[in-house]
Amino acid sequence: MNREKERGSVPAAGGTSLLVVFAVLCLTVFALLSLATVQADERLAEASARAVKDYYEADCQAQETLARLRNGEFPEGVFLDGEHTVYEVPVTESLRLEVELDRNLRVLRWQLVSAGNWEADETLDLWEGDGIFLGIEGRTG
Asked: How many domains would you assign to the chain?
């Protein structure tokens, strides 16, 4: 019996080790997900800041054109459309700022518009209601 007391029982470290490994693995995954989120947020913030900067540069240029018109000048790129004076300022490749003024040079329209043509994507295959869908036979009629 003395030998059994001297030997004692070996501590069960297997479960604890597995728990620690699982905890470290979870923390590593959460850290990587956090890093990916921060990087995506940074890219989004930079794109947003660039878009705001581009818009306000175009807005400033449109304001300068308006000031020149009110001072009696007729800058290049300004057109008369019947009773209205119109001009546009590019913001990005896909956006432009359009300005329309009345005969007294009051602003009628100061609008950000798309510079490209929109084309519908017709490549999507949709279920047309006949055949089997999710294990239920489609019924029409």
From this structure: 1
